[in-house]
Design goal:
The protein is of the alpha/beta class. The chain contains twelve helices and eight strands. The strands form two sheets. It has a five-stranded parallel beta sheet with strand order 1-2-3-4-5. It has a three-stranded antiparallel beta sheet with strand order 6-7-8, with no helix packed on it. Strand 6 and strand 7 form a beta hairpin. It binds iron/sulfur cluster (2 copies).
Length: 271
């Protein structure tokens, strides 16, 4: 379950305290000034209160969820720290997908990404076993430091199941995943007019999406040890970034172009 925390009350948590949540995630976008800039005044204190209450009633699998963007890249480690203090035992760090209201311009720079990842890994080590990365964390597997890789952390990260996904917009539009809503000609139909079964089985859009599995990935993904494990990260972000279905994942490619991609994640250590 994922929530902004504003409707998480003690009454609600008493009713669900015996539910075996795999993850009860509250969005935390930054310390108070940043979180409230993004989500409105008072939203940070409601989210932190929800984390504390959820930690008290649910005891485990209570996560803080953050999307790394230009506005909070400098304080992701601080979010991890304050979420841990509020009772979270899991941290879900996700990279921005430039669809919906998010745009490419909201990506942090390569330097900001590298610095924020280094800081968050340092805080993660300092907190030791007090908090763990959630399974829906989307840090590309090649970007973990060696000691965390040796502990197997990068093999537990979220892998995108595109093109075997389906997304339905509030207006009924259907796309291969929610990253493909928008002006990209990937709307396969509308649930008010077509059956999901027909769209899944017969639509040109879904057929095209599945062909991506046969494409050779470009850029850094082609040179990466992990390409067959993670299949090139987020295909929607790659498409929005370069307008090609086999384009490299933008985060890894930005780091590669800036000389900040880990050499030990490249085949033959080529930088
Ligand atoms: S470079 Fe591509 S294949 Fe390698 S971890 Fe990043 S997204 Fe995955
Ligand atoms: S392609 Fe990107 S937006 Fe779509 S399901 Fe995969 S990670 Fe999510």
């Amino acid at each position: 379950m994922s929530t902004n925390g504003s409707l998480v009350t003690e009454n609600f948590l008493r009713r669900v305290e015996n539910v075996d949540f795999k993850l009860f995630q509250v969005s935390i976008d930054g310390p108070e000034n940043i979180h409230d800039t993004i989500r409105g005044p008072g939203s940070f204190s409601r989210a932190i209160k929800a984390l504390k209450l959820a930690s008290f009633y649910l005891k485990k699998n209570v996560a803080a969820g953050s999307v790394l963007s230009r506005i909070n890249a400098h304080c992701i480690d601080e979010i991890l720290d304050l979420s841990h203090k509020a009772g979270a035992d899991v941290f879900a760090l996700m990279f921005l997908i430039p669809s919906g209201r998010a745009t490419i311009e909201m990506y942090p720079s390569a330097e900001q990404i590298r610095t924020s990842l280094d800081a968050v890994f340092a805080t993660y080590r300092r907190l030791s076993h007090g908090i763990r990365f959630a399974h829906n964390t989307t840090i590309p597997p090649a970007l973990y430091p060696q000691d965390l890789m040796d502990a197997g952390i990068n093999t537990r990260c979220a892998l995108c199941s595109f093109p075997y996904t389906i997304a339905i917009e509030a207006n009924g539009d259907i796309a291969p995943c929610d990253g493909f809503f928008g002006p990209y000609n990937f709307i396969a139909g509308n649930v008010r007019e077509l059956s999901l079964k027909d769209v899944w089985g017969q639509s040109r859009v879904f057929h095209t999406a599945r062909l991506t599995e046969t494409f050779e990935l470009q850029g850094v993904c082609n040179a990466c040890h992990y390409q067959h494990f993670c299949a090139g990260g987020c295909r929607a972000s790659a498409y929005i970034y370069k307008h090609k279905m086999n384009a490299p994942d933008p985060i890894c490619e930005m780091l590669y172009q800036a000389g900040l991609f880990p050499a030990n994640s490249l085949k033959e250590n080529r930088l």
